[in-house]
């Protein structure tokens, strides 16, 4: 069975290619390499013994998307990761985000609807909930006004898919990720942020590695147990496996609606200080950090109610925060020692 993975050489995409290949799927990975590297293919091969078919292309080029789906008109489904995800950059350059995240989605759906097996998995985000009123967050919590163009592209993306599903043969699953972290336990693939990391865990591992002087902890006056903000950190391998399960649900026609939505998290909230402590424990490193003011746009807390994913998808995150941080640290050390 042939499955297309857009953004297949990116952080979550590459881990999903590995899990798909482990389950016997033939993968065609698309990537424009703007925020990834072709060497990821070697990492995937080392883990699975096989490279996916790789098509270097930019989904913003409509003609390329059309040609691609003419060539691969026997695919059974598309997992769509290709998108930009830096919140700050999206505020500075909203049109880039609308082009990268919305145009590409539209072009892919335009071709997919012509195919007999129009199964579609979409990378969404818990950012659509904003600051939810109740924790843990269930899928029926209301979608709030997006705080950034990036967040808006995820909301609009979900709406586009929902509108399109009403009038086409496309069946979709929207996966709302909480905070994906970690790396493959083999340390053959992992996260490679360009420049200064914006996300907590890569910033921690780079600081421990001596690449950054110290971590700034954004705010310790939140109404949480220790005053720092709370998130649901999920191991990227667990997340990748959820994509395979979701895809199989569509392939086996087990979906109850044309568009289904699932939260993907662990169900446990961890504060920034808890993450730092857990990192120090698993790495044996003392982390240099200081408390600074809150970061604009951050919510106080967000963690998932995982009941629907557990019972309907039959998927549950297996790794602990410690496992995730330990894999992130192993990966960081491997990447830096190679350079
Ligand atoms: C961020 C995005 C989210 C996106 C996700 C993609 C924002 C507001 N949200 O999630 O929309 O889907 O990345 O990966 O940017 N922190 C520090 N110091 C740092 C970095 C982070 O204290 O140097 C804190 C943050 O304040 C937050 C927590 O760590 O409380 C997690 O931050 P981060 O990893 O950036 O993820 P989110 O902000 O939750």
Structure in a nutshell:
With 339 residues, the protein is of the alpha/beta class. Helix content is 40%, strand content 17%. It has a domain at 2-181 and 233-265 and 304-313: Rossmann fold (3-Layer(aba) Sandwich), CATH 3.40.50.720.
Largest pleated sheet: 7 strands, parallel
Helix content: 40-55%
Give the helix tally: 11
Rounded mean pLDDT is 97
Radius of gyration: 19 Å
Detailed description of the structure:
- This protein has a domain at 2-181 and 233-265 and 304-313: Rossmann fold.
- By secondary structure, it is of the alpha/beta class.
- Strands 3-2-1-4-5-6-11 form a seven-stranded parallel β-sheet, sandwiched between helices. A two-stranded parallel ribbon has the order 7-10.
- The model has no long low-confidence stretch (mean pLDDT 97).
- The protein has eleven helices and 13 strands.
- Uridine-diphosphate-N-acetylglucosamine is lined by residues 85, 87, 125, 127, 151, 179, 198-200, 203, 215-218, 229, 231, 272, 295, 297-298.
- Uridine-diphosphate-N-acetylglucosamine (UD1) is lined by residues 85, 87, 125, 127, 151, 179, 198-200, 203, 215-218, 229, 231, 272, 295, 297-298.
């Amino acid at each position: 069975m042939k499955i297309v993975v857009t953004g297949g050489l990116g952080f979550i995409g590459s881990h999903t290619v590995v899990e798909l290949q482990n389950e016997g799927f033939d993968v065609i990975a698309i990537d424009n390499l703007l925020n990834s590297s072709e060497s990821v293919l070697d990492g995937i091969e080392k883990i699975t013994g096989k490279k996916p078919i790789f098509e270097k292309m930019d989904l913003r080029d409509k003609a390329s998307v059309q040609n691609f789906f003419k060539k691969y008109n026997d695919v059974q489904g598309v997992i769509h990761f290709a998108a930009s995800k830096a919140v700050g950059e999206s505020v500075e350059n909203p049109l880039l985000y609308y082009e990268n995240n919305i145009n590409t989605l539209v072009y892919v759906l335009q071709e997919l609807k012509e195919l007999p097996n129009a199964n579609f998995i979409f990378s969404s985000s818990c950012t659509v909930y904003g600051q939810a009123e109740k924790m843990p967050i269930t899928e029926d919590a209301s979608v709030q006004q997006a705080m950034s163009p990036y967040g808006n592209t995820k909301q609009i993306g979900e709406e586009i898919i929902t509108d399109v599903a009403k009038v086409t043969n496309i069946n979709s699953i929207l996966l709302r990720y909480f905070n994906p972290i970690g790396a493959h336990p083999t340390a053959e693939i992992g996260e490679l942020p360009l420049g200064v990391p914006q996300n907590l865990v890569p910033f921690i591992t780079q600081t421990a590695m001596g690449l950054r002087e110290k971590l700034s902890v954004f705010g310790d006056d939140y109404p949480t147990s220790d005053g720092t903000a709370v998130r649901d950190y999920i191991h990227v391998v667990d997340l990748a496996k959820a994509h395979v399960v979701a895809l199989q649900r569509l392939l086996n026609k087990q979906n109850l609606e044309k568009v289904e939505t699932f939260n993907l998290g662990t169900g446990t909230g961890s504060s920034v200080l808890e993450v730092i402590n857990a990192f120090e424990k698993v790495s044996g490193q003392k982390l240099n950090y200081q408390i600074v003011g809150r970061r604009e746009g951050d919510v106080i807390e967000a963690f998932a109610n995982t009941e629907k994913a557990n019972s309907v998808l039959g998927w549950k995150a297996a790794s602990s925060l410690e496992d995730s941080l330990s894999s992130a640290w192993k990966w960081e050390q491997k990447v830096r020692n190679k350079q």
